[in-house]
Model the fold of this input.
Amino acid sequence: MLRSGAIGKAKRPVVRRAFGTMLAASCLVAAGIAIGQEPQTGSQPAAQQRRYQNMTPQQRAEATREFLGLGPEPDKAAATRGAPLFRRDCAFCHGPEARGATAPSLITSDLVLDDDLGEHLVPFLKKGRPEKGMPAFAAVPDDQLHDIAEYLHLQVEDVANRGTYRLLNIVVGDAARGKSWAASHCMSCHTAETFAHVAKRFRSPGQLQRGWIWPSRSGDQSLAVTAAVETPDSATIAGRVTQVSDFRITLVDGLGETHVIERRAGVEVRIHDPLAAHQAMIMTLTNEQMHDVTAWLETLR
Ligand code: HEC
Ligand code: HEC
Done:
């Protein structure tokens, strides 16, 4: 499990920074600003980019590997085994190639970039972050989770070595079909008012899609996950959940005081998530329905 841990640890911070620079550089290219126009600061990425453009694809792949300080090549056999598992368990939220959909892109995830051989990813996947919409995959065997981790590393490589960051075109659905589907699936809780000019509130179709599937809780206290905890020896403690696991729960009460409560026998925890309905919806929504609804909402400007 720690085949190249030591090398990886030393290199990863560099990787992340370089990778960020590189993504920024390729975004410039994508936007068509780089041509004939020097960035005012940080000419280094521009120089790097020019060098990069004069290379053969083979040289480019090698240079990228070196530039990014990527560790040993991902295990292609494991990644191949991981691909269908990723499609089965993860693609729905993170996109077919982990480039992001309703859940964030995993290509630029620190957790993925910091990981070498599953040592961070596997424990993370077993626990998930259920309070943030990332399910736990406790029932998936370790070797399968390792294969998924390898698959993710290969995706990072693919993106890095392609040299440009391909943006997901997500407005591929049918707006009329989305509208009628939403009429029967969204209006039990929402009114037309929820959706008035909704597309204007998001900067891109990608953010719109993420925003409607998994509305942001930040800045809206009424959407916080709360819990009431009853312990055998004290009164009920209620508050906002800041951390929860099988073993303990951390709450901040109305006075701003933090309570860490062990979940031993006799402790009863009732969690209330205002977005539970959306989470349930994510689990049953098909890709087509998701794209259709986004296409419809995109027309509401
Ligand atoms: C139901 C939707 C959903 C599914 C299915 C799902 N994820 Fe996630 N995942 C999320 C969300 C939402 C987040 C962001 C959580 C947060 O904001 O902290 C996330 C976060 C992550 C992160 C952390 C990213 C970071 O840098 O913080 C990783 C890694 C990850 N998911 C991997 C996976 C893998 C691998 C699978 C399949 C085994 C998977 N996810 C399945 C919704 C999902
Ligand atoms: C069972 C109830 C329920 C259903 C069904 C439901 N939602 Fe929601 N939705 C909520 C709750 C609760 C919130 C958070 C409170 C709020 O912002 O209104 C929310 C928030 C939203 C938001 C964010 C609103 C904002 O002001 O930022 C959007 C967009 C949204 N939902 C879209 C949808 C769409 C599209 C559907 C159908 C595909 C849907 N919802 C189905 C309960 C529901």
